[in-house]
Request: fold
Amino acid sequence: MTLTVDRAGLDLADPKAYADERRFHASLALLRRESPVHWVDAPDYTPFWAITKNEDILEIERNHQIFLNAPRPLLGTAEFDELNRERAEQGIALRTLIHMDDPDHRVIRAIGADWFRPRAMRALEPRIQELAKRYVDRMVDLGGECDFAQEVAVHFPLYVILSLLGLPESDFGRMLKLTQELFGGDDDEFQRGATNEEKLQVLLDFFAYFQGLTEARRKEPTDDLASAIANARIDGEPLNDFDTASYYVIVATAGHDTTSATISGGLQALIEHPDQLERLQRNPELMPFAVDEMIRWVTPVKEFMRTANRDYELRGVTIREGDAVLLSYPSGNRDEDVFDDPYRFDVGRDPNKHLAFGFGVHYCLGAALARMEIRAFYSELLPRLRSIELAGTPESTATTFVGGLKRLPVRYSIA
Reply:
């Protein structure tokens, strides 16, 4: 079947398309070339403009006072959007940093900002290196063959971020399952149920857990990020229960799932580009460049939505007040006008102006932590790695928001 721009646009609203990398990138390339600001009217979805060029995504991110996160920060079905609106009116909707605009966004973001600044990262680095060694040793213990995505990659960053929050290790498995259900709501393997009510129940389970955590930290504060969130005050008042729980949710989920996706996807890229694996092993000083190339290559956050609060012209197209736009980060990170040979995995790529962490006021709070974790893991693995190959077919999560590999069977030899 011939690929048309209309068919390509519909792929942006199809979770299964994101799990088929060749099909998905073919659609994005066509949109960039022929219709970079493209109207998508997909069944069951409220229509939106698809923004696929790197510079256009940057322009919209810069104009955050015109293109707002609220009321539709993520792509969902029209039914799901309506259900979220109803929940918001009832005061029981998820309201994380990605749901907010200034001035709320600036004030709420500041609550956890100090925990992700360079000084805090330097203090955390020895612990991250220790954990990286633990999980490379885990690969050795697994006997030379494993599902790297499920048995290694999901656990290392999970342990880092939940330790930073101060959660007990006995709860890590529960947090992993809830995260997979939240981000994998469109995936047959991870979704809790098919209905929107069943999907929203995942959020309510998160809220119930974190409400108990908030009560405990307010009663007996400890030296962890959970206490900083629980005891934060805005204009002298504590955050309400749902804003507090929402803060925990974004840190506990996005703080590890995106990083694990990059670690898994990065390993697949190294296996499939053995010349780059050898190059990086011989030139470990390239590691910072390689980390950013893995992040660009995987782009675990697939999209954010913005809504125009006035008419705006982009590439000769008028985006009307009230129209939604979808910022396609995987497309921006393969833009031929920005990246030399964008479909080449290059561990020495420089410059690498990828958009995987967003841009401007909504730039990812945990970007430095994610880079540190990926660098620590591969700095531990690659000097010890003697051989590695695929031991089966990799599988990706069906999603329109956050995702990557859910299966990466590998066979290897590690010293």
Observations:
- The chain has a mean pLDDT of 94.
